[in-house]
Structure formats: C-alpha cells, structure tokens
Design brief:
Elements: H1 3-23, H2 27-51
Helix pairs in contact: 1-2
C-alpha cells in the first residue's frame, strides 16, 4: 500500500473514534482527535495527488 492510502485509512479511523468520543460527551479529547484525524486526511490527499 502507498503512504497516502495508509494515512487515509488511519485518518478515517481517527474520525470515527472522534465521532464516538463526541457522542460519549468526552469533549476535549474528541475535539483533538477530530482535528488530528482531519489533518491526516488532508495530508493523505496531498500525498496521493503528488504521486499521480
């Protein structure tokens, strides 16, 4: 697998974890998790576009 796809999968899992944390009302950790996962998804998109 390429690095872009690995970062995308990790980012999507992180977004799912952040969504679960926000439903459970663990607010500060949910916010940090969602922001970190969103950054990973954006980085994966840039890596995938650079490899094309």
């Amino acid at each position: 697998m390429k690095a872009g796809y690995i970062l995308l999968i990790i980012g999507l899992v992180g977004l799912a974890a952040g969504a679960i944390l926000s439903v459970k009302d663990i607010e500060p950790y949910a916010d940090y998790t969602l922001v970190g996962a969103a950054v990973l998804v954006v980085l994966s998109g840039s890596l995938r576009m650079r490899n094309k």
